[in-house]
Design goal:
The chain is α+β, with helices and mostly antiparallel strands. The protein has helices spanning 11-15, 27-43, 47-52, 55-81, 83-91, 93-121, 131-166, 252-259, 270-283, 295-305, 345-353, 360-377, 380-385, 387-397, 407-417, 442-458, 521-529, 533-539; strands at 179-188, 197-207, 213-218, 289-294, 308-312, 316-318, 322-323, 328-329, 334-336, 339-343, 398-400, 423-426, 469-470, 480-481, 489-490, 496-499, 546-548. It has 2 domains: 13-166, no CATH class; 179-499, Aminopeptidase (3-Layer(aba) Sandwich), CATH 3.40.630. It contains 18 helices and 17 strands. The strands form 5 sheets. The chain has a 7-stranded mixed sheet with strand order 11-4-1-2-3-12-14, sandwiched between helices. A 3-stranded antiparallel sheet has the order 10-5-17. Helix 6 (93-121) packs antiparallel against helix 7 and helix 8 (252-259) packs across helix 9 (270-283). The protein is elongated, with a radius of gyration of 32 Å.
Length: 549
C-alpha cells in the first residue's frame, strides 16, 4: 500500500512546473505567467499551447505560423526583386480571393488560440487586482492580431471589387517602341448626354523601363482629327473628322455612341474607343489603352486623397452662371488664390475646368498640373491611410480598358516615374499658334511628337536632366519641358542646340497688381461688379502657370 504512494520518477518536478501547473505557483508568478502566455500567442502563435497546454494544437499552430512567416519573407523578396509580379499576384481576381480567405482563416484561428490561452491562464487563480490588466492585455493582443488580419482581408476585398469595376479583363498590352501610350480623358456625363463628352484629352507616354513620362495635350476644339488606319470610323470620315465647326475632337465620343456603335461590336465603350483611334491617327502614334475620368465625380477622388498641393501662378475664378445673352459669367462663386495652395475636391475640379478670362490652353496647363499633383501625392503612405475611400471613389470616377493583369507592371512604372519631370507638348499655345487646332499640319504634329518621345526616352542616357530638352525655335511650335516656354536655338544646318529650360516650378505667382497692391477676392469681385472684365483679365493672365508640390 505504501509503495503505491511513491510518485513516479520526475513526476513531482512536472507537477510543480509553474508554467504547466500554475496551482503550485505563487501569485506573482501566476501573473507573470499570464502575460508571458499572451505575448507568446501574439508573437509566436501556438507556442503558448506547446509549453502550457495542448501540445498537438500547439504543434499544428506552429506549423501554420512558420508557413505564414515563409510567405511574408517570400513577399518581401518579391517586393525587393520583382515588385510587378507581387502586385500582379495580389491584384489577380482569383489569387486575391484566395488571399482574402486565408487571411480570414488565420484571423479566426488566431482568435481561437487567444481564447485557448485565456483558458490556460485560468483567471480564477490570479489575484483580483491582476485580472483587469491581464484581460485588457489579452483583448489588445487579440485586436492587434486577429483584428489586423481581418481588416487587411476587408481592404483587400475593397480593392478587389474596385479593380473588377474599373479595369478590363481583356488581354495584356505590349509596349510599342519601348513605350506604353495611354489616353487620359476627362469629361462630364450629364442627363442630357449619351456618354461622357471628353473636355480634356491628354496622352501619357511612359518609357517601359525608366518610367520617364511625356504628356501630349489635345485641345477639345481640335478640328479635322484623323482616325488611325484600321479604325472603323475611317470609312465614315476617310479625310478626317471634317464636317465643319461642329466636328470637334471632343464630339467624337457622343457621335459614335449615338450613331456608329454598330461599327464596334463587342466593344464596351465605342465612343471612347473611337476617340482613342482619332487621337492615335492625329498624333501618328499608337495608343494602347484609355482611362476615362468623370469630372463630376473627380472631386470625390481628390477629397478621398486628402486634397492636392500646388503652386498656382495666378488667381482662378470658380465661375458663376453663364448668361447666353451677354456671353459672360455672373459673379464668381469664389476664387482660388495664386501661390501655394492645398485644394479640396471642389476647388481642384474648378481649377482644372475654369477658362473664364483666359483661353483653353491655360486650362490645359492647369489640368496637366492637377494630374501630376495627383500622381505625385498618391504615395504609399496616403494610399494605405485612405485606401478604402480612394478605392470607393475610384469606382465612381474612373473607367478604363487597361487589363487588370498588368496593374503590377503599371504601378511599378508609376513608382519609377515619381520624381521625374514629365515632358510636355500641347497642340496649341504655347507650342503652336492659337489657330493651329483649326487648320492642323499633321506632318508637323508627327515631327514634334517624334522629337518629344525621343527626348523622353533618351534624356537620361544622353546625360540630359529630366527637366531639360532640345527644342526647335522654327516651325510654328516647340517641344518643351513641363511648364517651360523658352525657345531653343536653331543652328546652321538645321540642328538644334541643347538648351536648359526652366523647371515648371521656376515662376513667381502673381499676387499683387502692377502698382504693388495685394490682389484679393474682394478686389476682383469689385472689378466684376463694375463690369471691368479687362482689368480682371490682366490680373489673372498668368493662371495657366502651375506646379505640383
Amino acid at each position: 500500500m505504501s509503495s503505491s504512494k511513491v510518485p513516479q520518477s520526475g513526476s513531482d518536478t512536472s507537477l510543480t512546473d509553474p508554467v504547466r501547473y500554475p496551482v503550485s505557483a505563487s501569485p506573482p508568478v501566476r501573473t507573470k505567467r499570464a502575460f508571458v502566455l499572451i505575448l507568446l500567442t501574439l508573437f509566436v502563435p501556438g507556442s503558448a499551447q506547446l509549453v502550457a497546454g495542448d501540445r498537438k494544437l500547439g504543434r499544428t499552430a506552429l506549423r501554420v505560423t512558420l508557413c505564414a512567416w515563409a510567405a511574408i519573407v517570400l513577399a518581401l523578396l518579391l517586393l525587393l526583386f520583382n515588385r510587378p509580379l507581387l502586385i500582379n499576384f495580389i491584384t489577380n481576381q482569383f489569387a486575391s480571393l484566395v488571399i482574402i480567405l486565408v487571411l480570414v482563416a488565420l484571423a479566426v484561428g488566431w482568435a481561437v488560440l487567444f481564447i485557448n490561452t485565456l483558458r490556460l491562464i485560468r483567471p480564477v487563480l490570479l489575484v483580483p487586482g491582476a485580472r483587469p490588466g491581464v484581460g485588457i492585455a489579452l483583448v489588445l493582443a487579440l485586436v492587434i492580431s486577429s483584428g489586423s488580419l481581418g481588416y487587411a482581408a476587408y481592404l483587400l476585398n475593397v480593392g478587389r471589387n474596385a479593380i473588377g469595376s474599373i479595369f478590363s479583363s481583356g488581354p495584356a498590352i505590349d509596349p510599342v517602341d519601348g513605350r506604353y501610350n495611354f489616353l487620359m480623358m476627362g469629361g462630364d456625363a450629364g442627363d442630357d448626354r449619351t456618354g461622357r463628352r471628353p473636355d480634356s484629352l491628354s496622352v501619357l507616354s511612359v518609357d517601359a523601363k525608366t518610367g520617364q513620362t511625356a504628356i501630349i495635350s489635345i485641345p477639345r476644339n481640335f478640328q479635322n482629327a484623323r482616325f488611325s488606319e484600321g479604325s472603323p470610323m475611317r470609312s465614315v470620315y476617310p479625310d478626317g473628322y471634317n464636317c465643319g465647326d461642329e466636328c470637334l475632337i471632343n464630339a467624337i465620343n457622343t457621335e459614335v455612341t449615338n450613331q456608329y456603335s454598330d461599327l464596334y461590336p463587342g466593344v464596351a465603350d465605342p465612343g471612347a474607343q473611337a476617340t482613342m483611334e482619332a487621337v492615335s491617327g492625329t498624333l501618328g502614334m499608337p495608343i494602347q489603352a484609355y482611362v476615362l475620368v468623370d469630372m463630376e465625380g473627380f472631386s470625390t477622388l481628390i477629397d478621398a486623397m486628402g486634397g492636392i498641393r500646388i503652386k498656382a501662378g495666378g488667381w482662378v475664378p470658380m465661375s458663376g452662371y453663364f448668361d447666353e445673352a451677354t456671353k459672360t459669367h455672373g459673379m464668381p462663386l469664389g476664387w482660388i488664390p495664386a501661390g501655394e495652395q492645398t485644394l479640396n475636391g471642389d476647388q481642384a475640379l474648378w481649377y482644372g475646368r475654369s477658362r473664364e478670362y483666359v483661353d483653353d490652353y491655360a486650362r490645359i496647363q492647369r489640368q496637366q498640373c492637377v494630374q501630376q499633383a495627383m500622381l505625385k501625392q498618391l504615395d504609399p503612405a496616403t494610399l494605405l491611410a485612405k485606401f478604402e475611400d480612394i478605392a470607393k471613389a475610384g469606382t465612381k470616377v474612373v473607367d478604363s480598358n487597361i487589363s487588370s493583369s498588368q496593374l503590377g507592371s503599371f504601378v511599378d512604372l508609376a513608382m519609377k516615374a515619381k520624381g521625374k519631370e514629365a515632358k510636355r507638348l500641347t497642340l496649341g499655345p504655347p507650342d503652336f499658334d492659337a489657330s493651329f487646332s483649326t487648320v492642323p499640319d499633321f506632318d508637323q504634329i508627327h515631327e514634334r511628337v517624334d522629337q518629344l518621345l525621343a527626348s523622353a526616352s533618351g534624356a537620361q542616357s544622353a546625360g540630359t536632366a529630366d527637366d531639360v530638352m532640345a527644342v526647335p525655335a522654327a516651325g510654328g511650335g516647340h517641344v518643351q519641358a513641363s511648364g517651360s516656354r523658352s525657345p531653343g536655338v536653331l543652328q546652321a544646318g538645321g540642328s538644334t542646340a541643347q538648351q536648359a529650360t526652366p523647371a515648371p516650378s521656376d515662376f513667381t505667382p502673381v499676387t499683387t497688381t502692377p502698382e504693388g497692391e495685394p490682389i484679393t477676392a474682394e478686389m476682383l469681385n469689385q472689378l466684376k461688379s463694375e463690369g471691368n472684365e479687362e482689368a480682371i483679365r490682366q490680373l489673372v493672365a498668368t493662371n495657366g502657370q502651375c506646379a505640383p508640390l
